C-alpha cells in the first residue's frame, strides 16, 4: 500500500507543522489550537480582540461586557490573577493592598482570610486590614452606597434582573411545619425594609433578592425584596430578614411596607378593598404604637407617611379622582401615570400615597399592580412579618370573595380566609400585639414604639408556618 506523505507547511509564526493541523486565513497558515481557536464553529486568530482565554474554565471564549481580570487562585498568602466572565449574582469583591478585585468563586472567596468593614461595606483581606489598622471590635455600621448599579428610588428597573437569580441555591428552609393555605398561594408579595445604618454586600443582595434603594426619609438604605409567592417566598423572606437583622440597624425613622399583587383589577373589587381597609383601620392601628397614623410626632423630619384613609368612598370615580390629588377623572384606564408623578421619578410628590393603605400603584401607571400596606413600624423580625403577611392577605381575600359586613372586624376577615388552626394563631398574635402596645403606651408613655425597637430582635411569636 502506498504511503501517504504528510504535507508540511510553515505557519505565520515560522513553525513547520502538518498542513492538516492548520487553517488558512488570507493565504497564511495558522496552527489549530495554537495560533487560532474554534469558538462556536468559527476560527479566530490568537490576538483577535474579540476573544480571550478564560483562566477559570481553561478555554478560549468570545469577549463579553462581563469579562474581567480578577483573582482566580490563592496559595501561601499570594494571589493568582486571570480573566473570567463575572456572573450577575457572583459578585465576590475583595480589597487587597494592591486594589479591589472580584474573586472568581464562592469557594475561593470563603478560603481567603478576610474581615468585613461594616462601616464601608467592604471585605478586606488580612494584609490590607492590618495596613488600615482596621479593628473589627470598634467597627460600626455605615451607610455608604457601594453597589455597582445606579442608586434609584424605585426597584422597577432592577427587579427583572434580580428576580432571574435562582434564590433556592442560597437559602435554607428556616420555617417548618407549614400548614397549606390556599390564600398564601393566591397573592404575590414583597417587602420594603427601611434601615438606619448597615450595608449588605452586593453578592448577598443579588443572591437573596434584596434591592438597595434610596429613600430620603431615612439615614440608611431601603432594601426592597423581589416579588415572592407561597411558602417558598416565605422561606426566602426568612433568610432575607436573617441577613438584615445581622447586617443592619433600624430606628424610629424606619418603617416596613408590604406590597401585595394578584388582586383582581376590577373597579367594584378595588372599591370593596378600599372600603374594607377603611373599616378596619382603627383596629389595625391597635397592633402598632399609638402614633402610627401620626408619624410626624416622632419622625425626625416631622412628616406623616402613614395617615388613616380619609373616608368611605361610594364609587370608583370618586376614589380615583381623590387619589389623583384631584387632577384626573376615572376613564377605566389603570395605566395612566399619576398626574403628580408622570415620569415615575418623583413619587414623593404624590400626596395621596401617604396613607396606611396605598392604592396608587394599583390605579396608576404601567407597572406591577400592587396594593401597599405602609403601616408596619420598623422591624426585621420574621415572626412579626409572617403574621402581618397572613393578616393582609386575608384582607385582600375577603375583599375579593367575602360578603360586606357593616361592622366588620379582623376576626371576621381571618375566619373567612383560614382554617381553624391558622385562625387561632393569628387571633392570638393580634391580641398579644394589642396588649403589648397598650401596655407600652399606658405604663411607660411609649407612643412611637421605643420598646418595640429595643425588643425587636428577641421577640418571638407563634406563626402559621412554625
How does this model look, in words?
There is one protein chain. The protein is α+β, with helices and mostly antiparallel strands and 466 residues long. The protein has three domains: 1-34, no CATH class; 67-138, no CATH class; 156-455, Creatine Kinase, Chain A, domain 2 (2-Layer Sandwich). Helix content is 29%, strand content 21%. The strands form eight sheets. Strands 16-17-15-18-20-19 form a six-stranded antiparallel β-sheet, sandwiched between helices. Strands 1-2 form a two-stranded antiparallel ribbon. A two-stranded antiparallel ribbon has the order 3-4. The mean pLDDT is 92.
What's the pLDDT, averaged over the residues?
92
Q: Main sheet, how many strands, which sense, barrel?
A: 6 strands, antiparallel
Strand order of the largest sheet: 16-17-15-18-20-19
Name of the level-1 CATH class of the largest domain: Alpha Beta
Q: Return residue spans where pLDDT drops below 50 for at least 5 consecutive residues.
A: none
The coarse overall form would be elongated
The assigned CATH architecture of the largest domain is 2-Layer Sandwich
Radius of gyration: 29 Å
List the helices and strands and how they pair.
Layout: E1 8-10, E2 16-18, E3 22-25, E4 28-31, E5 36-39, E6 42-45, E7 51-54, E8 59-62, E9 67-75, E10 78-85, E11 92-96, E12 99-103, H1 106-111, E13 114-117, E14 122-125, H2 126-131, H3 156-163, E15 188-194, H4 202-208, E16 210-213, E17 222-225, H5 230-247, E18 255-261, H6 267-285, H7 316-323, E19 357-358, H8 360-363, E20 370-377, H9 382-401, H10 410-417, H11 420-444, H12 450-455
Antiparallel strand pairs: 1-2, 3-4, 5-6, 7-8, 9-10, 11-12, 13-14, 15-17, 15-18, 16-17, 18-20, 19-20
Helix pairs in contact: 6-9, 9-10, 10-11
Amino acid at each position: 500500500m502506498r504511503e501517504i506523505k504528510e504535507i508540511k507547511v510553515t505557519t505565520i509564526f515560522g513553525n513547520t507543522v502538518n498542513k492538516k493541523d492548520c487553517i488558512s486565513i488570507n493565504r497564511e497558515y495558522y496552527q489549530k489550537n495554537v495560533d487560532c481557536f474554534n469558538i462556536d464553529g468559527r476560527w479566530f486568530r490568537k490576538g483577535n480582540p474579540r476573544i480571550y482565554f478564560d483562566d477559570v474554565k481553561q478555554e478560549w471564549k468570545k469577549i463579553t461586557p462581563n469579562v474581567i481580570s480578577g483573582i482566580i487562585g490563592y496559595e501561601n498568602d499570594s494571589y493568582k490573577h486571570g480573566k473570567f466572565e463575572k456572573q450577575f449574582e457572583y459578585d465576590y469583591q475583595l480589597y487587597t493592598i494592591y486594589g479591589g478585585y472580584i474573586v472568581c468563586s464562592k469557594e475561593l472567596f470563603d478560603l481567603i482570610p478576610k474581615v468585613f468593614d461594616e462601616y464601608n461595606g467592604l471585605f478586606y483581606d488580612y494584609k490590607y486590614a492590618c495596613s488600615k489598622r482596621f479593628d473589627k471590635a470598634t467597627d460600626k455600621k455605615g451607610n455608604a452606597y457601594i453597589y455597582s448599579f445606579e442608586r434609584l428610588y424605585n426597584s422597577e428597573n432592577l427587579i427583572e434582573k434580580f428576580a432571574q437569580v435562582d434564590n433556592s441555591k442560597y437559602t435554607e428552609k428556616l420555617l417548618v411545619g407549614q400548614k397549606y393555605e390556599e390564600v398564601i398561594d393566591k397573592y404575590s408579595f414583597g417587602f420594603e425594609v427601611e434601615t438606619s445604618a448597615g450595608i449588605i454586600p452586593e453578592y448577598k443582595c443579588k443572591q437573596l433578592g434584596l434591592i438597595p434603594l434610596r429613600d430620603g426619609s431615612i439615614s440608611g438604605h431601603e432594601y426592597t425584596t423581589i416579588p415572592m409567592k407561597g411558602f417558598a417566598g416565605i422561606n426566602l423572606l426568612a433568610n432575607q430578614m436573617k441577613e438584615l437583622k445581622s447586617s443592619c440597624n433600624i430606628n424610629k425613622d424606619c418603617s416596613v411596607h408590604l406590597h401585595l399583587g394578584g388582586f383582581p383589577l376590577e373597579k367594584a373589587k378595588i372599591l370593596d378593598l378600599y372600603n374594607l381597609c377603611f373599616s378596619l383601620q382603627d383596629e389595625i392601628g391597635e397592633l402598632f404604637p399609638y402614633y402610627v397614623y401620626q408619624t410626624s410626632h416622632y419622625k425626625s423630619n416631622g412628616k406623616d407617611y402613614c395617615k388613616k384613609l380619609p373616608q368611605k368612598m361610594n364609587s370608583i370615580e370618586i376614589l380615583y379622582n381623590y387619589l389623583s390629588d384631584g387632577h384626573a377623572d376615572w376613564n377605566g384606564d389603570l395605566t395612566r401615570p399619576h398626574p403628580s408623578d408622570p415620569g415615575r421619578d418623583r413619587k414623593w410628590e404624590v400626596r395621596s400615597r401617604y396613607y396606611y393603605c396605598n392604592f396608587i400603584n394599583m390605579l396608576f401607571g404601567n407597572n406591577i399592580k400592587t396594593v401597599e400596606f405602609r403601616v408596619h413600624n420598623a422591624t426585621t423580625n420574621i415572626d412579626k412579618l409572617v403574621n402581618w403577611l397572613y393578616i393582609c392577605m386575608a384582607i385582600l381575600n375577603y375583599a375579593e370573595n367575602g360578603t360586606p359586613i357593616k361592622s366588620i372586624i379582623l376576626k371576621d376577615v381571618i375566619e373567612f380566609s383560614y382554617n381553624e388552626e391558622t385562625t387561632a394563631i393569628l387571633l392570638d398574635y393580634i391580641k398579644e400585639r394589642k396588649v403589648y402596645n397598650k401596655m407600652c403606651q399606658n405604663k411607660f408613655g411609649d407612643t412611637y414604639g421605643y420598646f418595640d425597637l429595643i425588643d425587636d430582635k428577641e421577640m418571638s411569636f407563634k406563626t402559621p408556618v412554625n
